[in-house]
Amino acid sequence: MSVSEDSVRDMLAANLKRARSERGLSISELSRRSKIGKATLSQLESGAGNPTIETVFSLSRVLEVPISDLLDAAPTSGLTVVRAEQQEVLSGEGVDLRRLQRIESGDTVFEVFDQQVRGGRKQESLGHVGTEHTIVQAGRLQVQVEGQEVELGPGDYVGFDAALPHSYAAPDAAVRSVLLLQYRADQRLHLADATPAGAHEAKD
Fold first, then answer.
1. How far is CA 95 from CA 20, 66, 87, 98, 176, in A?
2. Sheet of strand 108-117, all strands in order from the earlier edge strand to the far edge
3. Selected residue with higher pLDDT from 115 and 22
4. Which distant-in-sequence residues (6+ apart) come within 8 Å of 85 by Cβ?
5. How far apart are CA 62 and CA 109, in angstroms?
6. Do 191 and 20 touch, CB atoms closer than 8 A?
7. Which residues contact 45 (CB under 8 A, 6 or more apart)?
8. Residue 151 β-bridge partners
9. pLDDT at 196 over 90
10. How large is the average pLDDT for residues 159-167?
């Protein structure tokens, strides 16, 4: 897939630097808190890195911002059509995510993802801000939240506090699902209103 100026890599580069500056964190401190190497963070901020699900969710957790504040899924109005094949894939150890849309309604923000859990694989998360909702479309999905495990089939739903440690696993064939991340509007960093990067950036 071709990488445009609106690619995940480019959007993360700009928003990560702004979010870090807004939080007053140096690269060294962000590295310490997120367990992501300084060199990797520098590459991400320069647009040269290769972000993974683990990286983006770890940054979301440490910076306490929704995923969309890092990936900049701008809201749209009117008819919105998003073609799955045109969206970049954000991959992790066991999951491939395609970001489809951000929906804002009153004090609530939803991020909508097409989520595929690869067969025989598991994706773990230490937790991040928001509430997580998953609806299985095809396959059998094992979900574990802070030690409690459930298995879901097509049409089944699970929701939980995303701050809790959790994991998804597809013990057999690949699983197709819809992932919705829900936030309160006051949990957002509102990067559009932030001071431009570099104006008062915390130094390494």
1. 26, 19, 15, 10, 10
2. 89-91, 95-105, 108-117, 175-184, 131-138, 157-161
3. 115
4. none
5. 19
6. no
7. 13, 16, 17, 20, 27
8. 142
9. no
10. 95
Q: Are 183 and 16 in contact (CB under 8 A)?
A: no
Answer positive or negative: Cα dihedral of 31, 35, 39, 45: negative
Query: Is the entire prediction scored with pTM above 0.70?
Result: no
Structure tokens at 180: 């919705």
- Please tell me the total number of residues recorded for the chain in this structure: 204
- How is residue 10 written in tokens? 């480019």
Convert the pLDDT of each residue in 103-138 to its tens digit: 887 788 899 999 999 999 999 999 998 999 999 999
Residue 104 parent element (H or E): strand 95-105
Q: Is the pLDDT of residue 76 over 80?
A: no
Closest CA to 114 of 48, 175, 196, 40: 175
Q: Which domains does the chain have, with CATH numbers?
A: 8-73 (1.10.260.40), 84-187 (2.60.120.10)
DSSP class of residue 160? E
Measured CA distances, 47 to 17, 42, 66, 146, 193 (Å) = 10, 9, 20, 34, 22
Closest CA to 203 of 41, 44, 7, 20: 20
**What SS3 class is residue 149?**
strand
